Amino acid sequence: MNAHSRPAGFTLIEVLVALGIVAVALMAGVKATGALGQQAQRQQSALLAQYCADNALIELRLQRSLPGLGEHRSGCEQSGQLLEVERSVLATPHPRFRQVIVQVRQDGHSLLRVVSYMGAWP
Fold first, then answer.
1. Between vectors from CA 112 to CA 65 and to CA 52, what angle results, nearest 5°?
2. Above 60 in pLDDT, residue 98?
3. Which run of H or of E encompasses 61?
4. Who contacts 18 (Cβ-Cβ below 8 Å, separation ≥6)?
5. How many whole angstroms separate alpha carbon 85 and alpha carbon 116?
6. Domain ranges of the chain
7. How confident is the model at residue 20 (pLDDT cuts 50, 70, 90)?
8. How many C-alpha atoms does 115 have within 13 Å on its Cβ side?
């Protein structure tokens, strides 16, 4: 072997740089996976909140009469989660119509707000 020849292989610096690059790539992957999991959780909560809001509006429609003015609060359990539903019925300029606002919350955080109108027909 020649005294000036270099042995084949990687130096310690090259190995450390490569490990650093792999570590950064893995951390980015873990962060992206966590963001996807959080987005899936938010999407599930929004869907469950929509079910609760739909149930509150359908309940009023099934009464087959003009809903009374005022607020009503209730709980709604969906998929093992307890959501809070606040339903407000407000007057409109036309006496045969009402504005209905349904707000769905979980742990004090608003998940969904739906505004609808209901009318009374002869």
1. 50
2. yes
3. helix 12-62
4. 10
5. 15
6. 12-119
7. very high
8. 3
